[in-house]
Design brief:
Blueprint: H1 2-8, E1 13-15, E2 22-24, H2 28-37, H3 44-53, H4 73-89, E3 94-99, E4 103-105, E5 133-142, E6 147-153, H5 159-178, E7 183-188, H6 199-213, E8 216-221, H7 231-244, H8 252-260, E9 269-275, H9 287-292, E10 295-297, E11 305-308
Parallel strand pairs: 3-7, 6-9, 7-8
Antiparallel strand pairs: 1-2, 3-5, 4-5, 5-6, 8-11, 10-11
Length: 317
């Protein structure tokens, strides 16, 4: 029963990357109706009980939105779901990417509790000057294989850094797992280092994935204010946060260790590595370079959906 509900809500789930709680746009009545179509008779109260067992939570409206909901939100959600299904049926990888909350490395308090004989002493103030450095965790979550990769940067969160992380994932895991797959689907937030307006993000994807490996890379961005619907938030980041909760991240190696030992009941495994390469902010990409990109904007919401291809490969007309 739980498996059937999970399949129904595969593309309808959001979650908190810290607490691990999840929620869905569907009502319990709607889920019960969908299950009935599959020949499973179940009441909405039972659906509610099963959702709680699956760590879903009832959500209330809170005055936290700065503006209105994007009118294209639902259409984009449906399009992302369709893209995910089509790529998975073709045996092509689907990855969810994002930057996790930055962490100060050092003897600082880390929220949460941990089993221990006695508490660990930490600094009484969280001054940046007292930190060993800043950890910038960029995650790549393989939605098909249920595998995560965490790349911890020590410089700046830039488009170049984001693409380097994805390239390292493809080189070390992706191409081994998916063989000769010609296409890759990337699910990303609309802003930040992998934002849909970033020229550097698109330029580096073309150079480091399309040209280097002959890949066609499709990117689909989540609408503004919907980052928690990105699978990486509740499938990878929440699990890592729970694993190191209450434990001071006193060194980069400590942070990597807790990431690598993160597992879940669904079989999640995580690889983690440190990237010490320095990254410069405000990478400039010229108009000339943008015209050279083999960029194909989709007919559906082209501001958020596009495909980059190797320079000598063009879409069929």
């Amino acid at each position: 029963m739980i498996e059937a509900i999970g399949k129904l809500m595969k593309h309808e789930t959001a979650g908190d990357p810290i607490s691990g709680l999840k929620w869905t746009r569907r009502t319990t009545r709607k889920i019960a109706e969908e299950l009935a179509k599959l020949g499973i008779a179940i009441g909405r109260n039972t659906v509610g009980r099963l959702l709680k067992e699956m760590r879903f939570s009832l959500r209330v409206n809170r005055k936290k939105l700065a503006g209105t909901v994007d009118p294209d939100r639902d259409e984009q959600f449906q399009y992302i779901g369709a893209l995910r299904d089509s790529f998975e049926k073709l045996g092509c990888p689907v990855i969810s990417v994002d930057t996790k909350k930055k962490e100060m490395v050092g003897s600082f308090k880390n929220n949460g509790t941990a089993w221990a004989k006695e508490s660990t002493a930490v600094n009484d103030h969280d001054f940046r000057s007292m930190a060993v450095g800043m950890a910038i965790p960029y995650g790549v979550y393989d939605t098909v294989a249920n595998r995560g990769a965490l790349f911890v940067g020590a410089s700046h969160d830039t488009p170049e850094f984001a693409v380097d992380c994805i390239e390292k994932w493809w080189r070390s895991e992706g191409r081994k797992r998916y063989g000769d797959a010609a296409g890759l689907l990337i699910l990303a937030d609309g802003g930040g280092s992998n934002g849909h307006r970033s020229r550097a993000w698109k330029s580096d994807l073309q150079k480091k994935l399309c040209e280097r490996y002959g890949l066609s890379v499709t990117v689909s961005h989540y609408p503004p204010g919907t980052s928690k619907w990105n699978p990486i938030e509740h499938r990878l980041f929440s699990a890592i946060s729970r694993n190191w909760a209450g434990r001071p991240l006193d060194s980069y190696e400590t942070l990597l260790k807790y990431a690598r030992t993160t597992t879940t009941a669904t079989g999640l495994k995580v690889r983690a590595s440190l990237i010490r390469k320095p990254y410069k902010k405000s990478q400039k990409v010229s108009d000339k370079r943008m015209k050279e990109l083999n960029l194909d904007k989709h007919a559906v919401l082209p501001k958020w959906n596009y495909t980059l291809r190797p320079a000598n490969h063009y879409p069929e007309i």
